[in-house]
């Protein structure tokens, strides 16, 4: 019996094969192209289904059939790992409001927003969604849409509209944490630090313990600490900074920034300890010049002039060459693309700035997206040269160019900002050099002779579960961030 | 940062007093004897420094052992230095750590397999029946050790390997006692030892042990029983898992 069924199946396949072959050779009709594409898609032949969906798009005479073809094309491209092209196909569905195919809008919106967010371009789909009539956005994807539309207005500088859309994202939506974060940024822009702190905290809580949202959570927490400091809540900011561990992607920034509120409460023990890490040879090429100036300032308050002198000498020795190199770069680099090319090639740019740029989360993410797009472009080239593929490849090329321009622009801005900061730090360091002489003078005068050296009895008892290690001038990588200064003020008064 | 600017306003205030101070300082420098100036400079240098002794590292312990079990399901090694016999070890143990420096190893089990080398048989093969007596080796093969004891861990440290990886290490001393079972008899054994642990994770470590399993063996190979102190210098390597999980704070 089974044999007979198999025989019949072979015969039936044989009888249909010539017609299928004929269909393949001649261009399929518009309805059949879509249907055949679906069949190929369901069989897992995604590359072939792409061709057929492309034919269906070209031959379609109504928005309904075209949108359906775009939708399936998006699915097939997603299966092939061609995310940007997939996003473009889903976005194409949303460009025309077609009452005949309402059911696909929900899925198209969801997919387009998720993919565009992964590609760090949610504002682009937001723009398409703004133009789409509201009746096409079902309640189940309202959160996704509001987030994307909020991002569109946020990037175009309309904070009021952006804020309104971000506020409409419900707490159950996966984009809630991001929306809350953006609201926090808007509140910070408006100098409403109290609200900003609450919003960043909400973003931090919403990110939960999901591994995918780790960097988002850390950034929200960092902004909580920054906002508390800006709002004058020094103790709270110290507490928040203290919660970070060395695994945080912002570790170096945190050590440096945490020293400011500590200085405000005269906690030189930990602030100097933090700076001991920041100024270690591990970070000589990480643009942390501010740390040297801050250390010198703290040492000034402790009348530790000799140490201050050494710190400043170290600053000039390390940062003068960097400053000269960055000045030369800013004169040499013609435009944004030059910055991008130098960064991508890791040539022609001082390593300190390269390291600093690599620490920037935005740049890192943009480079990853660029990598994804470049791989996608190669994959598309392997899929053939039909009209659909060529069109998608052209769009990926445009996206790559746009991404590179954006990275170049951001790098140029960062470079200019860091150069300006470095010049200011150098000026401050020069002031401090003068202050050493003044301070030493006052020390002698105040005491009518110099005070005797105080021998500090180093406290070695530490809390339970902690170790005490002496520092003998050698840095151990695992000890970074764990240094504490027991030094006392040498000031007379 | 704004706070930075504020600090520098104070600096500027100090800067304004510079000219007055500078002349006074210059005057002092001109009129003071050179030797005196040198002494002041030395004093200034001395009190203005932050010596290394005033910088400490307060670091969270990599692992804590208090109230935790060290389960060692895999232990391999042997007694490699016997003249004509070699003993292989395979065992397991469980150690309860009362605190970071004191632990109780109860029990420690080592199954042993003894092999005799061809040394004696080769010699005996050359002997004639009427010649010198054959070399008799007391072939009392070890079967297992079952012991228990204490571990003292007074030291803790870390090693840098090729300036790349940092390994947390702790040497320890141990003293066990228990049963040594051979093919023919049971003996009381005392096992002094020393070793060290390397921690890879707070819950996973490797242990290297050097122990001497000492027991008074009664030899019957010559007819009359002879008691002989037998030393078994054993080297073992083992992997340990730590339970329960270390609390995060």
Please describe what this structure looks like.
The complex is a heterodimer of chains A (about 500) and B (about 250). Chain A has helices at about 1-25, 30-40, 45-60, 65-80, 85-95, 100-120, 120-130, 140-155, 160-165, 175-190, 195-205, 215-230, 235-240, 250-265, 270-280, 290-300, 305-330, 335-345, 350-360, 360-380, 385-445; strands at about 465-470, 485. Chain A is mainly α and about 500 residues long. The model of chain A is unreliable at about 1-25 (pLDDT under 50). By secondary structure, chain B is of the alpha+beta class. Chain B has helices spanning about 1-15, 20-30, 35-45, 120-125; strands spanning about 55-60, 70-80, 85-95, 100-115, 140-150, 155-160, 165-180, 185-200, 205-220, 225-245. Chain B has an 8-stranded antiparallel beta barrel. At the A-B interface, helix 14, helix 15, helix 16, helix 17 and helix 21 of A face helix 1, helix 2, helix 3 and strand 1 of B. Strand 2 (about 485) of chain A pairs antiparallel with strand 1 (about 55-60) of chain B.
List keywords for this structure.
heterodimer, A: 493 residues, mainly alpha, 21 helices, B: alpha+beta
User: Which structural class should the secondary elements of chain B be placed in?
Assistant: alpha+beta
Q: Main beta sheet of chain B: strand number and arrangement?
A: 8 strands, antiparallel, barrel
Question: What is the largest interface, and how many residues per chain?
Answer: A-B, 62 and 41 residues
Shape assignment of chain B: elongated
Task: Please compute the radius of gyration of chain B using only Cα atoms.
Answer: 33 Å
User: Could you list the spans of chain A in which at least 5 consecutive residues all have pLDDT below 50?
Assistant: 1-26
Using DSSP, what is the number of strands of chain A? 2
- Percentage beta strand of chain A: under 5%
Q: Summarize the helix and strand pattern of chain A as letters.
A: HHHHHHHHHHHHHHHHHHHHHEE
Spans of chain B with pLDDT under 50 lasting ≥5 residues?
A: 1-34
Roughly what is the average pLDDT of chain B, rounded to an integer? Answer: 80
Helix content of chain B: 10-25%
Largest sheet of chain A: none
Distance between the termini of chain B: 34 Å
**Assembly type:** heterodimer
């Amino acid at each position: 019996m089974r044999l007979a069924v198999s025989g019949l199946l072979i015969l039936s396949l044989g009888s249909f094969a010539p017609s299928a072959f004929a269909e393949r050779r001649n261009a399929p009709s518009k309805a059949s192209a879509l249907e055949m594409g679906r069949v190929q898609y369901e069989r897992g032949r995604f590359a072939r289904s792409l061709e057929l969906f492309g034919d269906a798009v070209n031959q379609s005479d109504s928005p309904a059939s075209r949108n359906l073809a775009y939708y399936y094309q998006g699915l097939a491209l997603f299966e092939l790992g061609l995310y940007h092209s997939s996003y473009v196909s889903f976005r194409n569905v949303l460009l025309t409001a077609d009452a005949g195919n309402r059911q696909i809008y929900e899925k198209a919106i969801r997919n387009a927003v998720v993919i565009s967010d992964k590609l760090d371009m949610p504002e682009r789909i937001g723009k398409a969604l703004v133009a789409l009539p509201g009746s096409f956005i079902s309640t189940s994807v309202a959160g996704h849409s509001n987030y994307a539309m909020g991002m569109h207005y946020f990037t175009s500088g309309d904070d009021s509209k952006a804020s309104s859309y971000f506020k409409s994202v419900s707490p159950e939506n996966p984009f809630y944490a991001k929306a809350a974060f953006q609201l926090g940024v808007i509140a910070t822009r408006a100098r409403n630090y109290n609200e900003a702190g609450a919003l960043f905290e909400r973003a931090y809580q919403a990110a939960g313990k999901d591994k995918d949202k780790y960097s988002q959570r850390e950034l929200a927490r960092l902004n909580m600490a920054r906002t508390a400091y800006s709002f004058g809540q020094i103790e709270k900011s110290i507490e928040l900074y203290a919660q970070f561990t060395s695994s945080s992607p912002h570790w170096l920034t945190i050590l440096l920034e945490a020293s400011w509120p500590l200085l405000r409460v005269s906690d030189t023990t930990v602030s100097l300890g933090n700076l001991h890490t920041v100024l270690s040879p591990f970070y000589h090429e990480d643009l942390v010049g501010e740390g040297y100036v801050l250390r010198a300032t703290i040492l000034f308050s402790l009348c530790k002039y000799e140490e201050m002198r050494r710190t400043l000498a170290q600053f000039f020795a390390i940062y003068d060459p960097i400053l000269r190199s960055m000045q030369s770069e800013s004169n040499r680099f013609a435009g944004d693309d030059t910055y991008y090319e130098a960064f991508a090639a890791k040539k022609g740019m001082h390593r300190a700035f390269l390291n600093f740029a690599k620490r920037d989360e935005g740049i890192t993410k943009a480079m990853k997206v660029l990598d994804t797009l470049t791989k996608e472009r190669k994959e598309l080239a392997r899929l053939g040269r039909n009209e659909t593929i060529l069109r998608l490849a052209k769009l990926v090329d445009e996206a790559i160019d746009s991404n590179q321009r954006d990275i170049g622009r951001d790098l140029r801005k960062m470079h200019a900002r860091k150069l300006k900061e470095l010049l200011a730090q150098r000026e401050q360091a020069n002031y401090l050099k003068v202050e050493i002489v003044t301070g030493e003078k006052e020390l002698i005068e105040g005491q009518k002779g110099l005070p005797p050296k105080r021998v500090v009895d180093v406290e070695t008892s530490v809390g339970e579960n902690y170790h005490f290690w002496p520092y003998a001038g050698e840095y151990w990588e695992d000890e970074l961030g764990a240094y504490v200064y027991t030094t006392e003020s040498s000031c007379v008064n | 940062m704004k706070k930075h600017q504020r600090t520098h306003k104070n600096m500027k205030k100090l800067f304004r007093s510079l000219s007055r101070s500078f002349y006074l300082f210059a005057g002092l420098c001109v009129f003071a004897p050179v030797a005196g100036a040198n002494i002041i400079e030395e004093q200034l240098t001395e009190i203005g420094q932050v010596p290394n002794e005033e910088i400490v590292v307060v670091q969270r312990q990599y692992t804590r052992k208090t109230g935790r079990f060290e389960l060692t399901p895999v232990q391999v090694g042997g007694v490699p230095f016997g003249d004509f016999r070699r003993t292989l070890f395979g065992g397991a143990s469980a150690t309860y750590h009362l605190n970071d420096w004191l632990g109780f190893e109860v029990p420690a089990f080592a199954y042993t397999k003894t092999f005799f080398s061809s040394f004696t048989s080769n010699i005996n093969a050359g002997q004639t029946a009427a010649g010198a007596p054959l070399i008799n080796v007391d072939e009392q093969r070890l079967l297992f050790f079952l012991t228990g004891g204490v571990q003292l861990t007074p030291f803790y440290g870390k090693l840098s390997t090729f300036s790349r990886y940092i390994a947390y290490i702790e040497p320890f001393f141990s003293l066990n006692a228990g049963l040594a079972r051979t093919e023919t008899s049971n003996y009381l054994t005392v096992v002094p030892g020393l070793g060290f642990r390397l921690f890879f994770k707070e819950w996973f470590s490797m242990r290297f042990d050097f122990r001497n399993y000492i027991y008074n063996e009664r030899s019957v190979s010559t007819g009359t029983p002879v008691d002989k102190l037998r030393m078994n210098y054993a080297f073992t390597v083992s992997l340990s898992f730590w339970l329960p999980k270390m609390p995060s704070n």
